[in-house]
């Protein structure tokens, strides 16, 4: 028998790490801005993209921006419905 089985040690240990952004608003905002930047970078090349049959790149960027805005609205709404973190912070201090 192996030593791990004799001592019944866990094979995997999970680190106790607090989540940085549990509501997802920051991640969605950054992603949406990146899709918008990609669209603005590709926009001057629209004619070349059309000639090469890659005009869908622009549509993909706009779709990313649109879905990002929908997701951002949902996550902001969801965050507003969560219990206040300020109350939890004051409980920890006292």
Explained architecture:
With 94 residues, this protein is mainly α. The chain has a domain at 23-81. It is built from five helices and no strands. The chain has helices at residues 3-7, 25-42, 46-51, 56-81, 85-93. Helix 2 (25-42) runs antiparallel to helix 4. It is elongated. The model has no long low-confidence stretch (mean pLDDT 84). InterPro entries: DUF2530. Pfam families: DUF2530. The chain crosses the membrane at residues 27-45, 57-77. Keywords: Membrane, Transmembrane, Transmembrane helix.
In short:
The chain crosses the membrane at residues 27-45, 57-77. 68% of the residues lie in helices and 0% in strands.
The SS-based structural class is mainly alpha
Q: Mean pLDDT across all residues, rounded?
A: 84
Total number of helices: 5
Roughly what percent helix?
55-70%
Largest sheet: none
Q: Which range does the strand content fall in?
A: under 5%
Oligomeric form of this entry? single chain
Rg value: 23 Å
List low-confidence stretches: none
Q: How many angstroms does the end-to-end distance come to?
A: 50 Å
SSE order? HHHHH
Q: Please give the number of β-strands.
A: 0
Outline = elongated
Please specify the SSE layout and strand pairing:
Blueprint: H1 3-7, H2 25-42, H3 46-51, H4 56-81, H5 85-93
Transmembrane segments: 27-45, 57-77
InterPro entries: DUF2530 (IPR019681)
Pfam family, one: DUF2530
